[in-house]
Specification:
heterodimer, A: alpha+beta, six-stranded antiparallel sheet, 22 helices, disordered C terminus, B: alpha+beta, five-stranded mixed beta barrel, 26% helix, 37% strand
Chain lengths: 664, 136
C-alpha cells in the first residue's frame, strides 16, 4: 500500500516555482542580452523537469502499488489490471494525461534548449521564455485544477479499473505517440515566436528545430493511424475513422503541420512566405492545444470523452493568449518578414507548394468548421446540432484528391518557372498510367466517380514518383550498379528528397485503402449452431460456442468456419465477453486480412440458448492502409536520420534547371 | 539576378486578390453545399424537445437520454427500448447492434428519424459508463 505517491503533489508545486523562476531568468536574459541569465534559466528549467519526472514516477508508483488512497488510482486502475495496462492508466484519465503531457514538454524543452546551435543564444533565451510560459500553464492547471494526487477517504478496497476498450496493445502506444506529436510542436512554435521577438528572422529558427518538427509530425502521423487501427480492431463497427471530434482534434494539427513542413522548403530555398510560415506553426500549436482542450474539457458530447472535468475555463484563456499573443508578435514584425523573392510563374515549384498549402489549410478549415459548428450553433442560437460523417466526406474527399494529384505533379516542376512543353513531356507518362487505370476499372464495372478518380490519381502520382526514383538512380545504374543497390544509394544520398518521396508513396497506399471502403459490404444475422450466413463471396458457419471464466471476465468464444466457392478457407474465433469490474459486455473482433479484402466478424450478442447475433463486413483493400503507414514510417526514418545539411547541394542547383529536366 | 519581375505591383495584387477570392468562394461553396446534404447535420434533442419539434420525413435527428429500465425488448435482430429524460420518453427501434455500454439506465445517443410515434435509429451510441467517473 505504501507508495511514493505522497511526494507527487509537493514536487509539482516546487516544479511550478522553478518554472516561474526559469521564465523570469529567460526574459531577463533576452531583454539584457546576458547569456549567463539564460544559462541560469536553463538550470532552473532542468530542476523543474527533474521534479516533474519525479512526480510522474510518484503517480506510477501509486498506480503499480495499488495505492487507492489516491482518487486517480482508484478511478483508473484495479488490482486485477495487468501490468502494461496499469501503465496506460497514467494517461487513461484527464489528470494523469495532463501530467504526462507536462512530463514530455519538460523533457523536450530541456533537450531542445541544450542542443540548440551555439549561434542562436538570443533565440534560446526567448524560446526558453515561451516554453516556460507553456510549462507554467500546464503545471498551474495540474496543481490547482486537475490534481492527479488528490486523496480519497475512506480508502476503497479496489479501484474501478480501466475501461476494457482501453485495454488493448494499441492503447499502449497510440496516446503517447499523439502526445509526443502534440507536445513536440511546442519546440518549433517556441523558436518561431523567439525568432520574431528577437528579430532573428533568418532561417535559424526552423532549421534548428527541423528535426523536432519532423519528429513531432512523424509521431502524430503514426499515432493517428494507430488510433484508426485501434478503432478497427476494438470497437467492432467495421471501420477505422468516424470523424469523431476527438479524431478530428488529432487530425487538425496534422493538416496544418503537413502544410508547414512543405512551405518551410519555399522559405529555405527562395526566402518567401515568411509570414505564412510563422502563422502556420502558430496555428499548428494552437490547434494541438485546442485538441487537448477538446478531448479533455468535455465540451463536445463525444463517446470518447473520458470525463467532463473542470478544466475548460482554464484552456480557453490560454488558447486566447497564445493565439492573440502570437498574432500580435507577427503583426509587430510584419515588415521584417517581407519576401525576398516573388512568384515568377504559375507553373513553378513555388506555386505547386503554395497550392499544396492552400489545400491543406482549406482541409483543416473544413474539418475545424464541422468540428466546432455544433458549439457555435449552441452558443449563438441555442440549437444543439451534430455534424455527421456525410459532411466531412463531402468536403474532404475532393480536397484530398486534389492533394493526391499535386503530390504527383509538384515534385516534377522546376523552381521559378517551367515551359509548358517541358511540363507536358513530364506529365505524359503519369497521365497515361492514370487514364489506363480508370479505363480498366470502368470496363471492370466500377462506376463510383470518387473511387475511379481516387484510383486513377493514385496511379498518376505513383507513376510520377516511381519515375523520379528511376531518374534519380540513373547515374548509379549507368555505372553498372545493380537495381536494388542503385535505388538504396539514391535514397541515402539525398535523404530529404527521397525520404519525402517514400512518405508520398506511403500516403498513396493509404489513399488506395481508403478508396477501397467505397466497396464495403455488410450483413447481419441471428444464427443457431450449425447455421450459416453469407457476406460477399463468403459463407460463414457457426459451429461451436465455448464458455470460460477468468478473474476479469466471462468469455464466450465462438467458432466460425469460413468457406468460399464451396471450400473451407479459414476459421475465425470472435468473442463476446463480460467484464466483471465494469459490469459490461465487450466484443472481440475476428479479422481475416489479406491484400484483396478483410473479412471482419463481430458477435454482437449471445443468448442463453447459445444463439448468436453476428455482424460481418467485407472491407476491400483495408490491408493497404496499414502497409502504407509502414512505408510512411520508413520514409520518416530516412528523413530523420538525414542531417540538416543533406539538402545543401540542392541549394546550389535550386536556381538552375532541375537535374530531372537537365537529364532529358 | 533575383530581382522581382517587372510586372507592376498593383496588377500583381489584383491577381492575388482574385485568386484568393476564388479559393475562398469555392471553399465556402463547398462547405455550404456539404452542410445542406441530407444526413450532414442533425438536431441534437432530448425526448421532450423531440416531442415539441414533432415528426419530420426529411430531417434526421439525434436523440439523447437514458435507457428506461425494463423497456428493452428484442425481436430477432431488432431491438426496441425507451429513451427518457425524466420528463418524457420516446420509443426507439433499431436493427443495428447495440454498443457494449448499452444497458438499462445507460446514457445513449440514437441517430435516426422520427415519425411522431417512434424513433427509428440507424445508430445507437452509448456514453462511457459513469463508473469511470469519480463517485460523489
Amino acid at each position: 500500500m505504501h507508495s511514493l505517491g505522497p511526494l507527487g503533489h509537493p514536487s509539482l508545486v516546487v516544479a511550478l516555482f522553478f518554472v516561474v523562476a526559469a521564465g523570469a531568468l529567460f526574459v531577463a536574459s533576452a531583454l539584457t542580452g546576458r547569456p549567463q541569465w539564460s544559462d541560469a534559466g536553463q538550470r532552473a528549467l532542468r530542476v523543474s523537469a527533474v521534479l516533474v519526472v519525479l512526480a510522474t514516477a510518484c503517480l506510477l508508483s501509486a498506480l503499480f502499488s495499488h495505492d487507492f488512497s489516491f482518487e486517480y488510482v482508484a478511478n483508473y486502475s484495479s488490482r486485477s489490471l495487468s501490468g502494461p495496462y496499469t501503465l496506460t492508466a497514467l494517461w487513461g484519465g484527464m489528470e494523469g494525461s495532463l501530467l504526462f503531457w507536462t512530463f514530455l514538454l519538460m523533457i523536450y524543452a530541456v533537450i531542445a534548449l541544450k542542443t540548440a546551435p551555439a549561434i542562436t543564444a538570443r533565440l534560446v533565451a526567448w524560446a526558453g521564455a515561451v516554453l516556460s510560459v507553456i510549462a507554467m500553464f500546464f503545471l498551474t492547471l495540474i496543481v490547482f485544477a486537475a490534481d492527479p494526487f488528490k486523496r480519497l477517504a475512506p480508502i476503497p478496497a479496489d479501484g474501478h479499473g480501466l475501461n476494457p476498450l482501453l485495454q488493448s496493445p494499441g492503447m499502449l502506444i497510440h496516446p503517447p505517440l499523439l502526445y509526443t506529436g502534440f507536445v513536440g510542436f511546442s519546440i518549433p512554435f517556441a523558436f518561431a515566436m523567439s525568432a520574431l521577438l528577437s528579430r532573428r528572422l533568418e532561417d535559424t529558427w526552423f532549421t534548428a528545430t527541423r528535426r523536432w518538427t519532423l519528429f513531432a509530425w512523424s509521431a502524430l502521423s503514426i499515432g493517428i493511424v494507430l488510433g484508426g487501427a485501434w478503432a478497427y480492431t476494438e470497437l467492432g463497427w467495421g471501420g477505422y475513422w468516424a470523424w469523431d471530434p476527438v479524431e478530428n482534434a488529432s487530425f487538425l494539427p496534422w493538416l496544418t503541420a503537413t502544410a508547414f513542413l512543405h512551405s518551410v522548403i519555399i522559405q529555405e530555398k527562395r526566402r518567401m512566405l515568411k509570414v505564412w510560415n510563422v502563422s502556420l506553426i502558430l496555428l499548428t500549436y494552437v490547434l494541438a492545444v485546442f485538441g487537448t482542450f477538446l478531448t479533455r474539457s468535455g465540451i463536445l458530447s463525444s463517446i470518447h470523452t473520458f470525463t467532463e472535468g473542470p478544466i475548460g475555463k482554464w484552456f480557453l484563456p490560454f488558447l486566447a493568449v497564445m493565439l492573440i499573443g502570437g498574432l500580435s508578435v507577427i503583426a509587430i514584425r510584419f515588415d521584417d518578414l517581407r519576401s525576398e523573392n516573388r512568384f515568377d510563374s504559375l507553373l513553378s515549384r513555388e506555386s505547386a507548394f503554395l497550392a499544396n498549402n492552400v489545400l491543406f489549410v482549406a482541409a483543416a478549415f473544413t474539418v475545424l468548421w464541422g468540428t466546432v459548428y455544433p458549439i457555435i450553433s449552441e452558443v449563438t442560437s441555442g440549437v444543439r446540432l451534430s455534424v455527421g460523417p456525410p459532411f466531412f466526406d463531402t468536403v474532404f474527399v475532393p480536397i484530398a484528391l486534389a492533394i493526391v494529384a499535386l503530390t504527383g505533379i509538384g515534385p516534377l516542376i522546376s523552381w521559378r518557372r517551367m515551359s509548358k512543353g517541358a511540363f507536358t513531356r513530364i506529365v505524359r507518362a503519369p497521365l497515361v498510367a492514370g487514364a489506363a487505370v480508370v479505363v480498366f476499372l470502368g470496363v471492370q464495372g466500377v462506376h463510383s466517380l470518387g473511387a475511379l478518380l481516387a484510383f486513377g490519381l493514385c496511379a498518376f502520382t505513383a507513376t510520377a514518383i516511381v519515375s523520379e526514383f528511376i531518374r534519380g538512380s540513373h547515374v548509379y545504374r549507368s555505372r553498372g550498379t545493380p537495381w536494388p543497390r542503385a535505388l538504396g544509394q539514391t535514397i541515402l544520398r539525398n535523404r530529404r528528397r527521397y525520404g519525402g518521396y517514400v512518405i508520398h508513396l506511403g500516403v498513396l497506399l493509404i489513399v488506395l485503402g481508403l478508396a477501397g471502403s467505397a466497396f464495403r459490404s455488410e450483413r447481419q444475422a441471428l444464427l443457431q449452431r450449425g447455421e450459416s450466413m453469407h457476406v460477399g463471396q463468403y459463407t460463414l458457419t457457426y459451429t461451436h460456442l465455448e464458455r470460460a471464466s477468468t478473474a476479469e471476465k466471462f468469455i464466450n468464444r465462438i467458432t466460425i468456419t469460413v468457406a468460399r466457392g464451396g471450400r473451407d478457407i479459414a476459421t475465425l474465433y470472435p468473442q463476446r465477453n463480460f467484464h466483471f469490474a465494469q459490469r459490461q459486455p465487450q466484443s472481440e473482433v475476428a479479422i481475416r486480412t489479406n491484400p484483396e479484402e478483410d473479412l471482419y466478424v463481430v458477435v454482437t450478442s449471445v443468448d442463453p440458448n447459445g444463439g448468436v447475433a453476428l455482424r460481418a463486413f467485407v472491407n476491400p483493400l483495408t490491408w493497404w492502409i496499414w502497409l502504407g503507414a509502414g512505408v510512411m514510417a520508413l520514409g520518416m526514418a530516412v528523413l530523420l536520420t538525414g542531417g540538416p545539411t543533406a539538402a545543401a547541394p540542392r541549394r546550389a542547383t535550386g536556381l538552375v534547371r532541375e537535374p530531372a529536366l537537365a537529364a532529358k | 539576378m533575383d530581382q522581382p519581375t517587372a510586372s507592376p505591383s498593383s496588377r500583381r495584387r489584383a491577381k492575388f486578390a482574385i485568386g484568393a477570392g476564388t479559393i475562398l468562394f469555392a471553399l465556402v461553396g463547398l462547405i455550404g453545399w456539404a452542410m445542406a446534404r441530407p444526413g450532414s447535420t442533425s438536431y441534437y434533442l432530448t425526448p421532450t424537445e423531440l416531442h415539441a419539434r414533432g415528426p419530420s420525413t426529411t430531417k434526421s435527428y439525434r436523440v439523447s437520454g437514458n435507457v428506461a429500465p425494463g423497456s428493452i425488448r428484442h425481436h430477432g435482430l431488432a431491438t426496441t427500448f425507451s429513451v427518457t429524460d425524466a420528463h418524457s420518453q420516446v420509443r426507439v427501434t433499431t436493427r443495428q447492434p447495440l454498443p457494449s455500454a448499452f444497458k438499462p439506465g445507460a446514457q445513449v445517443v440514437a441517430d435516426g428519424t422520427y415519425n411522431g410515434r417512434s424513433f427509428s435509429a440507424t445508430q445507437v451510441l452509448a456514453k462511457c459508463p459513469s463508473k469511470f467517473k469519480p463517485k460523489s
